[in-house]
């Protein structure tokens, strides 16, 4: 029997994986992908809890998150492309202009 | 007449405004204006005040017991605790004062036209002079202590402006500065006295009326002061020592000779220095309640008189001798006050105003002719400057106390009161001082006007212009006859000034025999000292040189003014400078306030910002880590 705990543990694992990827990896594409993973982990949580509580709110929020994720991916990729055009690199450590 | 009273001080104020405007325009245009306009306005204003003062005096004479009071011209401020109205009062005491101030003041103004001729700051000079008269008239005419205080501070300001009139000379500017600061020290005491008077009233006020500083109000409720009288009067007297140049605050007056000579005459004869005497006489009902203060006043007055006379014996600067003589004569006046004889003090103040103004203006005339102040370079001027010489001689005789000139009567009255009310030591010392006065004045006269001319260019010396000589003549005339208002009964006079000012203090009855005897003693003594000085300096100049060599140590000690300036320098000014420079400025202000409180905090901010900016690596991952770390911490805190 798969209980809500399984779903939540899986989602926590996925989220941690995504977080680690976003923090540790230097390739900006991987970072974007890791963010996607984190969002999907959250989606999983929403849906699981929604099923568990027998309400539809979680489903609605999951759709919103998907829409936001799609938009974010589009904008993020566009930024990456234009960054790559100016510097010919996609390593995050090469982009340190934000430093004070 | 009462309606015109405010005009007496306001006319000089108008003159001040007009002349100050002229001076400003002149500075703007960098061109001195014509001299007739400032001199006309500058002299007309005090003269009209003088005419009005004579009118006020005339009205007052019809009924001396009804002083002319304008009443509150306007309410200065009014609170539930204290209300002060601005008003003028002319009673016998202030009528004498305004006559002296405006009368002698006008003569000095006229004299200044000649003395200051061609000076760059002609209009400025007259504007200051008029302002001075304005404040002095406020001082003597105000009907309450606060108006007096305004005048009191005002004359201090004007003395600063006038003593440092030639301010491009650093030494002269410093003299003005010194006068101002020393006066401020005295004024501080005066202020404390004022506050104590208020305190005495407020701590036991009962009535609804609260114009506490009004003279008549104070006099009607003087029993309130009984517990505090000594402290209050001592504080007020501290103010008087500043203004009227008594020990320990007399040091500004000799330095004040840096100003133009007519200014010295105005400050030291007619106006400013008389302020302290006037104030004590005005509040005599208060001083009477504090016998301790009176004896202190008497002792300080006598000590000042004696010390200044001793210094006056040794000085070579013609104005310095007169300055110390002023200090000495003021000491006499305080001696009279201390002996409980305010009338004698005011009488001497009046005669002193005449002969000292005459002496100063005469000295000014000499300085104007010679461009030199050192009496060693003078001599033999009598034939060259006849009128100056004669008037100077008259004034010298008057100050020396030779009968029947004015100084004799007033000084004799002080000596008499000292004999009656004081201890024998006081009497002996004051008579001794009178002799010293005669001696140094004749020394001054003989070395300046008699003997051989020692000036390098004797042909250039000429008598001053008429505008300077006429005031001298008038003042010399007044020095001769001024004493007649106080001609004592024993000589067949009426002693009018005693009747006029009798309300200040009941006159003490003195046996005529005694009065005559004392009169003879002092006259013989003064004549002897005058003759001695005449003989020594005219016929045997070598003798004084030998005396100087024999007593070189004492002589140089006195010549250096008892080293009082040096003493003050070492005991007060140096430690004060040390505290302010080293401790307060460089120690407290620069190190603690600036160093720690101001720059210290900026340093803290800079260093902590530098440390915190190490976190800004620019690496995206780090930022994310902080973000999440922070989020987790907050979540923990929220859940807990």
Tell me what you see in this structure.
The complex is a heterodimer of chains A (100) and B (640). Chain A is mostly helical and 100 residues long. Chain A has a domain at 26-93: Helix Hairpins. Chain A has helices at residues 4-24, 28-53, 57-87. The longest helix of chain A is centred in the last third of the chain and has 31 residues, at 57-87. Chain A is elongated, with a radius of gyration of 17 Å. The model of chain A has no long low-confidence stretch (mean pLDDT 90). Chain B has helices at 7-29, 36-62, 92-115, 122-141, 145-163, 170-203, 215-220, 229-243, 252-255, 261-270, 274-282, 284-287, 291-314, 318-338, 342-370, 386-400, 406-421, 424-449, 466-481, 496-501, 512-539, 541-550, 552-559, 564-613, 620-639, and strands spanning 68-69, 74-78, 83-86, 89-90. Among the domains of chain B are: 290-552, no CATH class; 563-639. In chain B, strands 1-4 form a two-stranded antiparallel sheet. Chain B has a two-stranded antiparallel sheet with strand order 2-3. The termini of chain B are far apart. In chain B, 72% of the residues lie in helices and 2% in strands. The chains are: A mainly alpha (100), B mainly alpha (640). At the A-B interface, helix 1 of A face helix 25 of B.
């Amino acid at each position: 029997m798969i209980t809500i705990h399984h779903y939540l543990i899986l989602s926590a694992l996925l989220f941690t994986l995504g977080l680690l990827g976003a923090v540790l990896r230097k390739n900006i594409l991987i970072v974007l992908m890791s963010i996607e993973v984190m969002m999907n982990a959250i989606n999983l949580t929403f849906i699981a809890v929604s099923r568990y509580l027998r309400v539809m709110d979680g489903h609605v929020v999951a759709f919103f998150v998907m829409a936001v994720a799609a938009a974010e991916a589009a904008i993020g990729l566009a930024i990456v492309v234009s960054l790559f055009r100016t510097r010919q690199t996609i390593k995050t450590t090469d982009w340190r202009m934000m430093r004070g | 007449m009462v309606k015109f009273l405010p005009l007496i001080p306001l006319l000089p104020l108008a003159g001040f405004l007009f002349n100050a405007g002229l001076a400003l325009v002149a500075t703007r245009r960098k061109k001195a204006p014509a001299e007739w306009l400032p001199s006309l306005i500058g002299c007309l204003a005090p003269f009209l005040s003088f005419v009005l003062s004579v009118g006020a005096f005339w009205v007052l004479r019809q009924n001396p017991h009804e002083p002319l009071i304008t009443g509150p011209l306007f309410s200065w401020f009014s609170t539930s605790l204290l209300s002060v109205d601005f008003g003028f009062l002319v009673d016998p005491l202030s009528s004498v004062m305004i006559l002296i101030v405006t009368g002698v003041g006008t003569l000095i103004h006229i004299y200044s036209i000649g003395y200051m001729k061609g000076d760059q700051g002609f209009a400025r000079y007259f504007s200051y002079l008029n302002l001075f008269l304005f404040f002095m008239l406020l001082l003597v005419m105000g009907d309450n202590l606060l108006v007096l205080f305004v005048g009191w501070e005002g004359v201090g300001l004007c003395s600063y402006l006038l003593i440092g009139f030639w301010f491009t000379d650093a030494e002269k500017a410093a003299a003005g500065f010194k006068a101002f600061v020393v006066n401020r020290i005295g004024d501080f005491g005066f202020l404390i006295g004022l506050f104590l008077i208020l305190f005495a009233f407020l701590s036991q006020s009962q009535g609804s009326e609260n114009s506490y500083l009004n003279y008549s109000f104070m006099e009607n409720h003087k029993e309130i002061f009984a517990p505090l009288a000594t402290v209050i009067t001592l504080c007020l007297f501290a103010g008087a020592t500043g203004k009227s140049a008594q020990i320990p605050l007399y040091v500004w007056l000799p330095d004040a000779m840096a100003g133009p000579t007519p200014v010295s005459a105005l400050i030291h004869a007619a106006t400013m220095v008389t302020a302290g005497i006037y104030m004590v006489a005005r509040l005599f009902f208060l001083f009477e309640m504090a016998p301790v203060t009176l004896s202190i006043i008497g002792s300080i007055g006598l000590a000042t008189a004696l010390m200044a006379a001793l210094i006056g014996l040794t000085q070579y600067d013609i104005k310095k001798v007169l300055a110390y003589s002023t200090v000495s004569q003021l000491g006499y006046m305080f001696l009279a006050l201390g002996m409980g004889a305010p009338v004698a003090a005011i009488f001497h103040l009046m005669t002193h105003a005449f002969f000292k103004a005459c002496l100063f203006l005469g000295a000014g005339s000499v300085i104007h002719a010679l461009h030199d102040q050192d009496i060693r370079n003078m001599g033999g001027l009598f034939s060259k400057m006849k009128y100056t010489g004669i008037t100077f001689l008259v004034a010298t005789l008057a100050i020396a106390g030779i009968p029947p000139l004015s100084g004799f009567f007033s000084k004799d009255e002080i000596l008499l009161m000292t004999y009656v009310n004081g201890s024998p030591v006081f009497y002996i010392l004051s008579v001794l001082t009178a002799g010293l006065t005669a001696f140094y004045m004749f020394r001054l006269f003989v070395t300046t006007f008699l003997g051989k001319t020692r000036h390098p260019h004797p042909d250039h010396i000429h008598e001053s212009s008429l505008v300077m000589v006429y005031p001298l003549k008038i003042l010399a005339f007044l020095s001769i006859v001024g004493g007649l208002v106080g001609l004592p009964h024993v000589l067949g006079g009426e002693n009018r000034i005693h009747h006029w000012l009798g309300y200040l203090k009941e006159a003490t009855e003195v046996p005529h025999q005694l009065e005559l005897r004392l009169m003879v003693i002092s006259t013989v003594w003064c004549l002897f000292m005058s003759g001695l000085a005449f003989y020594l300096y005219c016929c045997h100049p070598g003798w004084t040189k030998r005396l100087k060599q024999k007593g070189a140590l004492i002589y140089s000690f006195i010549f250096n003014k008892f080293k009082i300036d040096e003493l003050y320098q070492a005991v007060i000014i140096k430690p004060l400078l040390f505290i302010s420079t080293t401790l307060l400025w460089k120690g407290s202000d620069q190190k603690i306030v600036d160093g720690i409180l101001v720059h210290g905090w900026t340093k803290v901010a800079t260093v902590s910002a530098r440390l915190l900016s190490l976190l800004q690596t620019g690496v995206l991952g780090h930022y994310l880590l902080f973000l999440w770390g922070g989020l987790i911490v907050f979540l923990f805190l929220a859940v807990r």
